[in-house]
Amino acid sequence: MTFLVAGIVLGLSAGFTPGPLFALVLSHTIRHGVREGIRVAAAPLLTDLPIILVSTLVLSRIAGYGSLLGAVSLAGAAFLVYMSYETFRARRQEPSVSDAGPQSLRRGAMVNALSPHPYLFWLTVGSPMILKGWKTSPAAAVLFVVGFTGCLVGSKVVLAILTGRSVHRLSGRSYEYLMRALGFLLLLFAVLLLMDGLRLLGFLR
C-alpha cells in the first residue's frame, strides 16, 4: 500500500506540474478538441515502459549517463521549437474527423521520449522505488508503476477535459492570444531543455 500511495502522489504531482507534455495537451485540446488532447495525455502509456527498462539498465550497468541525457535533451529542444512554431501559426478551426488524429498520440510520445525529465525521474526516483518495492514483493513494485502512470495520465486527461469545456468561450482574438502564449511556453521549455542538454554535456555549469 505504501508503494501505491507513493506512486499516486508522485503521479499527480508530475501530471499537474507544467512541462512540455502539459503544454502540448493544452495546445492540442484547443486546436483539435478534447479527444486529441486525451491522445496526447496518453503518450506516457507508450513511452514510460521503455524508459523504465532503460533507466533500470542504466542504473545497474552504466556508470555515467550524462552525455546520453544531454543528447536526448538537445533533440527534445529542437522538436519543441518546431512545435512552438506550429502553435504560433495556428488559427482557430472546428475539430474534424480528418484532423490528424493519429499525430496527436505520436507527437505526445515524441515530446515525452525526447524530454530528459522522464529519464531523470525514473533514474533518480522511480527505478530505485521499483527495486526497493521488488525486494518487499513484486506486487509492491507493480503497484508503484500502476499508481504513478495511472495518475500521471489521468491528471492530464482531466486537464484536457477542463480545457475543452472552456475553449468554446474564446473569441477569435482571444484564441490567437492564447495560442501565442502556449507557443511562448513551448519555446520556453525548449530553451530550458537546451540549457539542460548543454549542462549535461558539460558545456555549462
| Number of contiguous helices | 9
Q: What is the distance, rounded to the nearest whole angstrom, between the alpha carbons of the first and last residues?
A: 40 Å
H/E element sequence: HHHHHHHHH
Beta strand %: under 5%
Percent of residues in helices: over 70%
Number of domains: 1
Task: Enumerate the spans where pLDDT stays under 50 for 5 or more consecutive residues.
Answer: 93-102
Sum up the overall morphology in one term: flat
Q: What is the residue-averaged pLDDT?
A: 81
Strand count:
0
Briefly note the structural class of the backbone: mainly alpha
Could you describe the largest sheet, including whether it forms a barrel?
A: none
